[in-house]
Amino acid sequence: MNKINVGVIGLGAMGRGIAQTLRSAGYAVHVYDVRAQAVQDFVAVGGVACNTPAQLAAACEVVVSVVVNAAQTENVLFGEQGAASAMKPGSVFVMCSTVDSQWSIATEARLHELGIHYVDAPISGGAAKAAAGQMTIMSSGRPAAYERAGDVLEAMAAKVYRLGDCAGAGSKVKIINQLLAGVHIAAAAEAMALGLREGVDPHALYEVITHSAGNSWMFENRMAHVLAGDYTPLSAVDIFVKDLGLVLDTARASKFPLPLSSTAHQMFMQASTAGFAKEDDSAVIKIFPGIELPPSRL
Known about the structure:
By secondary structure, this protein is an alpha/beta fold. It has helices at about 15-25, 35-45, 55-60, 70-80, 100-115, 125-130, 145-155, 170-195, 200-210, 215-230, 235-255, 260-275; strands spanning about 5-10, 30, 50, 60-65, 90-95, 115-120, 125, 135-140, 155-160. Strands 1, 2, 3, 4, 5, 6, 7, 8 and 9 form a nine-stranded mixed sheet that branches.
């Protein structure tokens, strides 16, 4: 069976992995990114370069957007040379960012008026899992959208959860996932910081915790960055300033208390304003005073 043309907008840590996975699955992958070098790097391994979202959208039956937030997605769709102006009726826009669920619902309605299908499809798993096709998609959308884009979604991820027959549910579940992710990173940083303050060997502490009941995926993953002294941003501090802000906005709308999320958000805000905004989110550990962090191994 001939594979359809698929477009990927946004070639960051996750987007490039998704583009690679789709290419490996046999799709003709068109790409666009504001960074020309990122596009050229993917062209070198078999991708098709596009100069604007509109050019990409005109060539593709399914457009996958992997940008940072709702504002960037809005620009990708409806800005100058935006994708919505060029997408053919019946084509599908797959939105992979972490956004407010109400924004996602409204965007589905706007595209529906243009005859364009929409899948609310936030992603989780990190860059390595994206490149291996092993990430998780928390999706919701109309049946017709799945009918046209279901094979693409399955090629992108190991787990594709279909959480509802219209936009919104996918984004709500992703926001809850980010609540846990942000709180777990903040708690992991606090635990490691206390260990350093108390003079515990951080490598021994890491070994014990990762084989004990106190472990979490975030402790195991992010504290490895701290031990290596490597704060290269796979997911930056400011991502959790944004995502935990969305968590709190969601809860505030229904007057629902989130004390742990509020505290974690303040920790990431403190790290951001202290100058660590663009560093790996594990750099939230740098807000703790009186500790000596492991040096870089680089």
